[in-house]
Amino acid sequence: MVPGKTTLPMMPLGRGARRKNSQLPRRSRRQPAETGRRFLDLRSGEVDIKHPKVRHETVLPVRAPNLTMQYPQVQINHHYARLWTGHDFYPQFPSFATCSKELKECSGHVFVDSVPEFCLPETELIDLSTVDVILISNYHCMMALPYITEHTGFTGTVYATEPTVQIGRLLMEELVNFIERVPKAQSASLWKNKDIQRLLPSPLKDAVEVSTWRRCYTMQEVNSALSKIQLVGYSQKIELFGAVQVTPLSSGYALGSSNWIIQSHYEKVSYVSGSSLLTTHPQPMDQTSLKNSDVLVLTGLTQIPTANPDGMVGEFCSNLALTVRNGGNVLVPCYPSGVIYDLLECLYQYIDSAGLSSIPFYFISPVANSSLEFSQIFAEWLCHNKQSKVYLPEPPFPHAELIQTNKLKHYPSIHGDFSNDFRQPCVVFTGHPSLRFGDVVHFMELWGKSSLNTVIFTEPDFSYLEALAPYQPLAMKCIYCPIDTRLNFIQVSKLLKEVQPLHVVCPEQYTQPPPAQSHRMDLMIDCQPPPMSYRRAEVLALPFKRRYEKIEIMPELADSLVPMEIKPGISLATVSAVLHTKDNKHVLQPPPRPAQPTSGKKRKRVSDDVPDCQVLKPLLSGSIPVEQFVQTLEKHGFSDIKVEDTAKGHIVLLQEAETLIQIEEDSTHIICDNDEMLRVRLRDLVLKFLQKF
Amino acid sequence: MGAGQDVGRSCILVSIAGKNVMLDCGMHMGFNDDRRFPDFSYITQNGRLTDFLDCVIISHFHLDHCGALPYFSEMVGYDGPIYMTHPTQAICPILLEDYRKIAVDKKGEANFFTSQMIKDCMKKVVAVHLHQTVQVDDELEIKAYYAGHVLGAAMFQIKVGSESVVYTGDYNMTPDRHLGAAWVDKCRPSLLISESTYATTIRDSKRCRERDFLKKVHETVERGGKVLIPVFALGRAQELCILLETFWERMNLKVPIYFSTGLTEKANHYYKLFITWTNQKIRKTFVQRNMFEFKHIKAFDRAFADNPGPMVVFATPGMLHAGQSLQIFRKWAGNEKNMVIMPGYCVQGTVGHKILSGQRKLEMEGRQVLEVKMQVEYMSFSAHADAKGIMQLVGQAEPDSVLLVHGEAKKMEFLRQKIEQEFRVSCYMPANGETVTLPTSPSIPVGISLGLLKREMAQGLLPEAKKLRLLHGTLIMKDSSFRLVSSEQALKELGLAEHQLRFTCRVHLQDTRKEQEMALRVYSHLKSTLQGHCVQHLPDGSVTVESILIQAAAHSEDPGTKVLLVSWTYQDEELGSFLTALLKKGLPQTPS
Prior knowledge:
The complex is a heterodimer. By secondary structure, chain A is α/β, with parallel strands linked by helices. In chain A, about 25% of the residues lie in helices and about 25% in strands. Chain A has 19 helices and 36 strands. In chain A, the strands form nine sheets. A seven-stranded mixed β-sheet of chain A has the order 12-10-9-1-4-3-26. Chain A has a seven-stranded mixed β-sheet with strand order 13-14-15-16-17-24-25, with no helix packed on it. Chain A is elongated. Chain B has four domains: about 10-200 and about 385-430, Metallo-beta-lactamase, Chain A (4-Layer Sandwich), CATH 3.60.15.10; about 205-380, Rossmann fold (3-Layer(aba) Sandwich), CATH 3.40.50; about 445-460 and about 470-500, no CATH class; about 500-585, TATA-Binding Protein, CATH 3.30.310. In chain B, about 45% of the residues are buried. By secondary structure, chain B is an alpha/beta fold. The radius of gyration of chain B is 37 Å and the shape is elongated. The chains are: A alpha/beta, B alpha/beta.
């Protein structure tokens, strides 16, 4: 047994639970507040790096609902940490002298002005130093890893696929790089005072565990965290302490994204998070291996259940073309990996027919080059179409050609080469999609004043209204085309029909329609039996009872077993064996031969002769037919046998031997003088009529 | 069927727990007749191969491991799954096509497989990831391990139940300039099938060999000679290219290096796209600089061979048995200033093998005799494990037995003895067509009820239970499910009642004391005699030893005799009969 062994699959937070406030109604525009922005004149090639590129930072917590699964031998925790969007403030804003420096108002919204901070996964509930294993589902789900591996006493192993680790590293590297460029030296902390926070407008007032929010990790911590990851491949069976086996399966959502099977020999739990049934670039989702699950934990569904990703891509392209044709620029705030590959592929097919071949596409990120290069080397993790390209051999993604033909250019930042090459109108892909830091801030400031320009939101993690709030008022067009390829509720019910788990476990939000669309009964999980739901910091007992464990019978022992057929098709064999247990593996070995009696040599103490009562005799079953028994007795030389009937059976009297045998349906009692020979003879005759177990 | 005490046409049939798996399907470079392909009639005399074989596994793309595949699947006929890694699947058809072209177009062979057959054959391929457990059917599973050697080379574990075989293919235990080292976990297979190309060699350090190689190349070009390096398009070639490229860069040399046409660029492209299969260093730096984009190495044109002045040419194939390398060799062989460096193993019968064994007059096609005046050098760059590496792998995997293939009989014999000595496992080296049968004694997995297991484990944890404890239970075999439960549970499940068998023996003792006193004496006697047993004196006057009940009673007729009634169940028989015997001896006289 391994008490306290714990496994932590990681999944995104923002992605795991549906955002409560993602359906915010559009608010009326307020009068601009003078904020003294600095513009960067990129056209002139001058970039003033001394001035802050980031303004009015909203604190960005990483929210972490936590799910603890009790698996009898192994405790499994699903943590998900994910960048969480900043909150809007309602305009009725009282002034607080104590922290007025931290709070800024813009267009009637109030923001905390601080270096960005992140909310960690729930750490109060469990002692992370007792966690043995963390399973990572995809590269979006590992952003909090350095906090756990570096500062909690965690000493276990982290499992992830190679693309997950490589691209996860890029995402972290970008984040660290962006945050390092934020010039604010101080974190705002005064507003976190409980007495003050409670007086703040609603969303801020409700922010959880603000005191645990932390500043971004360093690259050193990232490297150290990543060095603790053990690389695994799809369908690889990983033994944990001999007690459970975990297996990653393709989840179809991102390069290297995985669902996990956690199973013992008799129980199977599937952890399904961030999965997609759509055909994009990753390997398709492996559904068959999820079958026969006792419990299926389902999370990481789409944030935007009502939007069709295909339609959104179409809208994205047409809006982009429209803007550029009118001489405007297009800004696409995005992560440096993932959907961007699909967008570039669509544009590759689209630009010539839309007459956009002369428009430059810029991809600006400290990891832009690495991301584009890495995408080309994970052939084995790609969908079939892309895989077969590699066999030709051609790069699997067409962005290689876009780069070769100079249509797509990538830069580590807006400084240096970019300022020389920059031409307008153009299309810029850059981060961070929250619009709170990164090069995207420059472009918002540069292009926000002109209605010719358009910003197109494709990442579903952040509410675009919240993201835009500190930039208001904006003349720039805003298009919301969230592309979220993860499962929607129709696909979920299809999946569950296909996979048929005995029980479904999911976050509470999935068991009811979204608050803003309470009439949409189709926007929730519908299955039989109804799903078990959990919420943040809740411990849930999974509904299965372990009854069996695997044990191996050594061949020598197996040879010695004598099975007998009790009922048609059912055979029994009694087993007496020595149990050996090592590393949670159980083996039965044949019992040692009884030592040869060393008779005569030495007088031993009486107690040495005491038989080992641990030699167990089998149980008996059956009943004894009196007439046949008497006949048998006679055959074996007993005479003068008398049979008396009793209320429950019979008494057989062997008068000569002064012996009495009580026979009832379920018992036999032999009462005799102390004559061992006689007793053993009678015993053997009785046993002839009984079955041993 | 191949590679038995020989190098070439690797092909091994493994029957394991009722499953039949064919490992590799290679051709032999030394032959041009029937012996070139394995004899598939060994597999089955009658009936289709598809019915007999559960799957085919190809370890890597070298032709001596996959060269007969289209012949096997399309001409002999096999429609089942063929497993190989992604890079192997990508590169294999190209080498097969190349091979076909040489055989058909240049040598004019008829009845050879066609391009279409190669394509059809590749459609039967299922690509596997490293470490992925592929379920071929409900019982048979295979798993690939990294083997080094060439891009995409893998070792395969074939497993049915608790029996397993590991087939190494060709492997390399030391990382080189572009690939990593082979690795296998401690999977304890029933059998390890290992290649043994370098069964007796323990190679000096790679660095020395590299220095030697560079020195020789450098000296030759310095004196204006031409260097020919016959290689296979993929594998060693890339390693040597990286080596020369860096050397040229460092020494600022201007002498041209060429790589024979065709595969070069394509090959390098494969390396680029499958960079995850190369070694750590290349993988780490590929974003900044792709090691497979060469500056100094240019494509070769046939006309260049007659150019004056020094040059270095990598030409295919590696054993000088056909193609461009042989053509260039014939042109340059007459000049003692030139040099040919053989960086890999050469199969018997090839020109490469002949010149390496010292032959200097070669009979070519059409009775021509070619005199070899150029210098011939051999540099072991082929990425096979040497004796040390093979021993290392055996140590890693901890197999029950070892079988050697892909090597020469004499060398194998030496290694066989060494393995048997060092690891105390049996080691085999069958010739082609020979069958080795290994008895295995698999243990039988059954389900044990958790209640029974926990009960036993709890008792096993008690400190006084140092003696071996016996677990007693009942194995229920129903259909194919085996469950071990406690006897009580078995009875319950089958709806049977327990039949209790009880014995009561009368022990007559001469004693005039009262029954109660008698019982007390029995108690103290047993208590002192049977240490380690639970002896109790109950309020009703009876004595128990574990579950055995002893009562004292007066004799109905003789007041001077007391009767001890000892009663026990069948399950406690030993102790019961021991007690009666003990009591029969009488009770010790108490002092006072």
